[in-house]
Amino acid sequence: MTEATALPAPIWNILIGQDEVVTKLDRAVHDAELITRGEHGPAMTHAWLFTGPPGSGRSNAATAFAAALVCPENGCGQCQICRNAPTGGHPDVDIVRPQGLTYGVDDARELIKQAGMSPTSSQWHVVVVEDADRLTDQAVNVLLKAIEEPPPHTVWVLCAPSTEDVLPTILSRTRHVVLRTPPDAIVVKALQERYGIDASLAAFAARASQGHIGRARALATDEHARMRRQEVLRIPMQLHDLPACFVHAQNLIETATLDAHSITDSLDVQEAEQLRKAFGADAESKLKGQLKRSLDSSMKQLETTQKRRRTRTVRDQVDRALVDLLGLYRDVLLLQTGADVGLINDEMRPQLSQLAANGTTEDTGRRLLAINYTRKQMESNVTPLMAIEALMVELKDPWVRAAS
Ligand SMILES: [Zn+2]
């Protein structure tokens, strides 16, 4: 093998600080090609479990793997396929992101039907299930058989935060790929080399994102993202009375909603256009009869999915703010205990010292608990505004719950 071919395929460049994973997946894609030629390819298998904390690149790894399997060049990173497949824009790649609270039996049955279809333009049909931890136990049981004996060209890629989040039955039937939170130094280096970010901004972004690569990139490259973060971090210093709590809760939700829509709106339009095109309808031409009814019903389905995605994206944005607040109170706790560890928000040291002086470690502990509780609540069906209002009141007065 020449040195050039020994390098991992370019598509893996998207992963940062995950050398082991890249080697494993690159080999799997290589062996997948051998298998399609009827040869032996032990590095490839048909059921995978990708785990890693949020932001480690878990779902990027999974979707890049899917793209590499359907790219004729094994993941050139350049072609239309490599560009479209990771977002589900390829007929042989299904990206399933359970949008609701949990993923039930009916969804699982539908998915298995879909997964069973032969690939149309490549050698594999890859089904990526993001957040497989949202599958109900019943849904898992339905899926297990399909995962155990998939049609020869089907590949399952399940993603979850950790192995504890999935049933042992899944674990034993899949090959495991573990992504780790990359150390700050590697994130800094990647930001400098890939995006030309200067050293101090890169260091800030790496620190502030707490190992979350996508977040680090956004903070390093997008001033708007930095501004939003700053707004969130200023909230704890401004919760002087109850009306302030409600105003800040309202602002936080409104901002999250705006930001979420700026992410989803263009996707919505693109998808609707793609669907219309697939039916051979452009802006001018009008469809008739069965074809029109069929397009209308697909359009309705698409709108339902898009609506769920919007809701979920708002919640993701709120969660991001909550993670930033967790980091802030972690810093406050460090200052209160005099621990000699680097602060996530070192540039706010004076304000943080003020917060630290204004309360006890018990206060800070209760605030951290309140934030974590709200994060969990946001995963259930609670109204985001109400959950955040309650949180703001607890951040103002961490003993309010005990008193009531
Ligand atoms: Zn390609």
From TrEMBL:
GO aspect biological process, one term: DNA-templated DNA replication
Pfam families assigned: DNA_pol3_delta2
Region described as Disordered: spans on this chain: 290-311
This protein's name: Unannotated protein
Organism: freshwater metagenome
